[in-house]
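I am writing to request your help with a piece of structural work I have in hand. Thank you for your consideration; the sequence and its C-alpha cells are set out here:
=====
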Amino acid sequence: MKYVISGSKMQQVDQRFIEHIGIPGLVLMERAALGVTRWLFQNHSLKKCLIVVGSGNNGADGLAVARQLMEQDIVPEIYVCGNLEKATEEFRIQYKILKNLGVCFIEKLEKKPYTVVIDAIFGVGLSREVQGSYRAVISFMNKLDCPVVSVDIPSGIDATTGAVLGIAVKANATVTFGFLKRGLLLYPGALYAGTVQLEGAGFHESQLLKKEEEAFLYEKTDLKTLLPKRSPWSNKGTYGKLLIIAGGNVMAGAGYLSARSAYVTGCGMVKMCTGLANRDILLSRLPELVLTTWNREEEARDIVSKELDTVDAVVFGPGMGKNEATKQILELLLKQKEKPILLDADALNMVADNMELLKECQAPVIITPHVKEFSRLNKKTVEEIQKDFFGEVISFINEYPVICVAKDARTIVAKQGETAYINISGNSGMATAGSGDVLSGIIGGLLAQGMTPKESAILGVYLHGLSGDRAKEKLGEYSMTAGDIAEYLHDVLGGNET
C-alpha cells in the first residue's frame, strides 16, 4: 500500500520536516537527487545528458543531480530556465557549488544527440498556467528525440488534479519523492508522467499526519492480506448469499456477468431476481444460479421483498431499464435497514431523478457510477468533473452518505470522513460493454462474504483491474470482452496473476 497526497500537502510535509523535525532542506534535497541519479544510471545512457532547471527548489534538485553525475565523471549540460534574481535560497546554494566547480551553464537550447534529458523546471507548487519563455522551453523539450525524465512531477502538471497547466513536459519517467502525488496518477497527468518511480526522501508513512492521508493505493503484495479467509470447516452459507436484481426482461447478459463474477470471487450462493424472459439463457450459461423470476413488472417489487430476508447483500441495477418496477425496487431497498446494497447502472439513473433518496437511506449503500452517470448524479458536466475528478468525488460523498465508486480511467473509492482510494490497476481494454456488470458482481461477492462495504468496494475495484490486466496480457487490449475480465479473475485469485 502506498499513500497519495496533493501538491499542497506535500509542501506542508516538506516544511514540517525542515522546521519541526529539524532535517535541513538541503539534506532532503540530496536524498531526492540521489533517487533521480540512481534511476538514471539504472535505466538510461548518460553519454550526452541535458538538465533543464527552473530557479525554484525543483531546479535546485536538478542542480544536485548534476553535481552527483559529475562525481561519476558524467558532465551534463545545464540550462537555467528562470529568473536568477528570484531564485530560492536552496537554488542559490546549489548554483554556487556548481559554479565553484567550474561548471559551464549553456546559454541556448539547441537540438543535439542527447541520450537523456532531465526536466527540473517546476515542482509540486505550480498552480498557474505556463507561459512565456517557460512555454517555449517545454515545447522544445517535447520535440527532442530522446527519453525525458522528470524530477518529482512533469513540469506543467498540477500536482493535485493532474491537469495540464497550458503545456507540460511529456516524460518517459518521473522520479518522485516521499509520497505519490495525485497529479501523477490522475489523468491527464498520468499520461505525461510515464513510468512513476517513488524514492525515499527522508520521510516515513508513520510520520505522516492522519489529516494528510488523502488517499492510498494497493499493490499486488497486499492481496494475500486483503482477501476473505477460507476455512476447511465451512459450507456455502459461510461465504454469504448475494441477491442480484438485474436484467429486467431483456438484458440477461448484464445479470449473467454480475452473477458469474460474484461466484468466481468466492460467494457461497448467488440468487437472482429477473424477468421470466431471461430464465433459459441464464440457467443455460450459469446453472449454479438460484433464480426467481417475475412474469409482469408489477410483480417485481413483491418478489424482491420476499427474497431480501434470505440473503446477506444486494446488487441492484444492471440491465434493469428505467421503469416503474426499477423505481419501486429502488425505494424498497433504500428504506430497509439491514442489508448492504450496491446500486449500479439503471438504479443510478433512477436515483439521479430523486437525489433525496440517497440522503434518506438507512442501510449501507455503495454506488458505482461511471463518469457520465456521476455527471447525472452531481449535476455537473463531464468536462467540469474531469478538471478535478478527485475533488468532485470528495465533495459528493460529503453531501451524500454513500460509498462512491466513481469510475473513469482511474477509479476513486470514497466514503465521508475516511481516506479515499485511487485505483491504478486496469487498462483501456476494459472500456467495453459489461465491464461494469463484472465489477458489480465482484464487489457484491465480497460484500456477501462479510467484508465491510468500503473494503468490498476497494478490493473489488482492485481485483477488477488486475483481472483486466491479466486479460490484456493474454488477449491484448483490442480483443478483450467483459467476459474475459471475469474469466481471468480465476488467475488473479489463484495467485497466477504475475
